[in-house]
## 1
Amino acid sequence: MEEELDHIEEGKEEWVKLIDRVYPPFEKELETAEEKMEKVQIKDEPAGFDCDVCGHPMVIKLGRYGKFYACSNFPECRNTKPIVKEIGVTCPKCEQGQVIERKSKKNRTFYGCDRYPDCDFISNNKPIGRDCPKCSHYLVEKKKKAANK
């Protein structure tokens, strides 16, 4: 096949004739593969807590943007929650919430307070939960080293 494609590149053979010759057997193989292929079903995993709205158990579902929590009583209850990753650091701005890892629309990681919109703390670098000994500002992790932000 590769040699035949090289012949097309060199102008020794027409690509339409090659495709007419190669595609019909390939199409039959493709249809056979589709018929024999197993259909995979993704089952919901129990989340371990109940829905705030209706009290039914929450489950972990897989959507087009990744995993999330959803009520098992769907479609009657449409309650959903994102799965957040806590980093174990108290918010340096409000000192009440926890800093969590988030994703931007462009799929970049940033860190923000879980009390948003009440607290608008955000950082592109991961806070480490200690203050700078010189200026008392929070420290962040940069290239696996602590740095003053």
Note: The chain has two helices and eleven strands.
## 2
Amino acid sequence: MTQQHTIPFEKYHGTGNDFVVVDADHPVPNRPAFATAHCDRTTGVTDADSDTVGADGVLFLALESSYDPPRVVMTLVQPDGSVAAMCGNGARCAAAWARNRTGADVVMIDTPAGTRRAVLDDDEVTVEMGVPSFEPRDVPLARDDPLVEEDVEGLTVTAVNTGVPHAVAFVDDVDDVDLDVLAPPIRHADLFPRGTNVTVAAQADGGFRQRTFERGVEGETRSCGTGAVAVVAAAKRLGLAGDEEVRVSPPGGDLMIRVPEADEATLRGPVVRDFAGELETVPTPEP
């Protein structure tokens, strides 16, 4: 016999990067199984007015409102059941969720990659993303030298950690890249002992277009905040960008990125609350 339980949830997205958001006060006995079930793009979460099914991950959020500014402990469980150390758009959604409960315009977000400060202005959220690192131990890489503009499985890539690892390739046109074919061999290359996200970018209209194949989602997402920061960090390393704020445009909308020298990168963009409802937790055996 199994016993079914439901818990409340909300659905948020940042430029199309969408998440099931669950208050961590509500127990979920098997978070990986919960994420895998409800993020499925064929059978996962949806509602009558939504044009999407499933999600790019589940944000389990623990609000600590007694702090000033309030703090949120963020755990992102991805569709494959793994936990991501950092997610830029997820952090922006977490900040919006916290403001809806506290009214605060500044929120501190505790992630496995460190604490990030978020500032909210209407529907726009700016989050600090840490200092991007090309150091092999940080990416990490299975070698002692940084990976900058080298061939890996057919693409010329630069490896950078923006909270999670990214292999960034600059191309003439992102639409000409068959990401589903080219990305998996790079994502699983021996050079990346913990795997990597794979991001392609192209210069366009003073900024960059972006597409990202996300580790843990194991497919392309409509937006990736850590990937957008990785694009600008790699572009700056290669002399294609400076300290100014740069527009990066994944399929889901525009993000604004700043990567100052030896200081916190920032990610700015809109957040939308889509809908709310109840979801079944994964069935557990009765005692």
Note: The longest strand covers residues 6-14.
